[in-house]
Amino acid sequence: MTMSEEVRSNRPPFSPHDTDGAGVFVKLVFREEIRKFKITESISPYEEMVKFVESQFVVSGLVRLSYKDEDGDEITVSSNREVLDAIQSCGSGVKILKFSVKDVRGESM
Known about the structure:
disordered N terminus
């Protein structure tokens, strides 16, 4: 079973605020720039988010994605499962999930 097949078969339903069933929007924040990205059930969300970040922001090619959970803790994501868990864990009161983007190689520059 491929990774995307595994993610699809183990995928939880999207959050209740995904009213049209076509996906959920997330915000990707890099420095002072913010971009919206739509996660649909037909993609591998982590890989697609990283590709989007690399195409929209000036980064070195090695990025770290994280979000703040309901306790205010910064949670790092590095897989499709973790992105889907983040989406599922945000309550219906959250309109859009925000991911911080860090340029890992650029940190030491």
